[in-house]
Amino acid sequence: MRIVIAEDAGVIRDGLSLLLTGRGHEVAAAVGDAAALCAAVAEHRPDVAVVDIRMPPTHTDEGLRAAIRLRGRAEDLRELTDRERDVLALMAEGRSNAAIASALFLSYGSVEKHVTQIFAKLGLPPSRGDHRRVLAVLRYLEP
Fold it and tell me: φ and ψ at 48, to 5 degrees?
């Protein structure tokens, strides 16, 4: 299991890292504040984040607020199938539907169907004022 640890006390952070790696888990990152937590989760895409509630700079609820933001994003993306996540990842690389079809060995129509499902699952209805493809990619990329 890939894990990110967010704990401002270095001794506790190091201890958790040693304990978890000793149990066969991969600690992808161990960070000391909420901003670094968001960056580490975006970079490493862990299975689990172990988060201290009170973190710098105010030591109130920064860790909790960061975890809530990260959880909301994960829940949106969790609804996607593996193939839909593959399509969305290629959309985030700027690929067209034709290029995605070629890369994933799918028909163009299948890619269109996956893109439509991505929009629906992310709650992005058709709109004249919004570009759903850009909004879906932003949701995928946000920390």
Answer: -145, 145
CATH number belonging to the domain at 82-141, selected among 1.10.10.10, 1.10.287.1080, 1.25.40.10, 3.40.50.300: 1.10.10.10
Task: Tell me how crowded residue 4 is: count the other CB atoms within 10 A of its CB.
Answer: 25
Is residue 75 exposed (0-12), middle (13-18) or buried (19+ Cβ within 10 Å)? exposed
CA–CA dist 25, 16 (Å, integer): 11
From CA 121, how far away is CA 84, in angstroms rounded?
10
In angstroms, the CA 54 to CA 34 distance is: 9
Each residue's pLDDT, cut to its tens digit, for the chain (143 residues) gives 899 999 999 999 999 999 999 999 999 999 999 889 988 888 888 888 999 999 888 888 888 888 877 776 666 788 899 999 999 999 999 999 999 999 999 999 999 999 999 999 988 888 888 899 998 988 888 75
Half-sphere exposure of 114 toward its Cβ, with a 13 Å CA cutoff? 23
